[in-house]
Write a structure and sequence with these properties.
Number of domains: 1
CATH class: Mainly Alpha
Largest sheet: none
Radius of gyration: 16 Å
Number of helices: 10
CATH topology: Hypothetical protein af1432
Number of strands: 0
Structural class: mainly alpha
Strand content: under 5%
Bound molecules: fe (ii) ion
């Protein structure tokens, strides 16, 4: 089954600045995504995207919502329509005349699957957070204290263990860090304290 999108242009430039309201985005999220584990993953990625946009990129609230929205909806179709991932959510956002930047970030979060290169910093950070956030969460679940006292060394050890969270692509993580021009250690050190705060809906 190929998830290749067969195109690299999304939305229309005339829709620049158009976003869903938080209520609209949450409604779509809760209607489309029923699996609580997937919901948590998407909320974690959304929280990381928002935090990075504000703290590192120093973006405004308006701009940072675009990053958060991309994170919140990036896997929206994975639960009920895995064969249409991420074609369905892209088409939905195009129909709703959403800013192409947001749609593009979603379309490029797995470039080997979807055939869309991450180009903007928003694209690259969504790609970078997606896999690594999942691995760090899996690690928290096997630790008695969860995220408490989790450190860089422990996460790196799990990364080296190929059998741990084996579905998490180590190659994608390395590739994402290179593309975003971020050291892996810095990314891990950013995710641990921020993700700790996002454990429930
Ligand atoms: Fe994801």
């Amino acid at each position: 089954m190929s998830l290749h999108l067969g195109r690299t242009e999304f939305g229309s430039i005339s829709n620049k600045g158009n976003v869903l309201t938080r209520t609209e985005a949450e409604e779509l999220f809760h209607t489309w995504v029923l699996n609580p584990k997937l919901k948590l993953h998407m909320l974690q990625v959304a929280g990381l995207m928002k935090a990075w946009a504000i703290e590192v990129e120093k973006l405004t609230d308006e701009e940072s919502w675009k990053w958060e929205m991309a994170g919140l909806l990036h896997d929206a179709d994975w639960d009920q329509w895995p064969d249409l991932h991420c074609k369905k959510i892209i088409e939905e956002l195009e129909q709703r005349n959403i800013d192409p930047e947001i749609i593009r970030a979603i379309a490029s979060h797995g470039h080997l699957h979807f055939g869309v290169e991450p180009l903007t910093q928003m694209d690259k950070m969504l790609y970078a957070f997606d896999e690594l956030s999942g691995l760090i969460h899996a690690y928290s679940l096997m630790r008695p204290g969860g995220y408490q006292d989790m450190d860089l060394k422990g996460v790196k050890k799990r990364l080296k263990e190929k059998s741990f969270a084996a579905n998490v692509s180590r190659e994608d993580i390395q590739d994402a860090c290179q593309r975003a021009n971020i050291q892996l250690d810095d990314l891990i050190n950013f995710i641990i304290p921020h993700q700790t705060q996002i454990t429930t809906e």
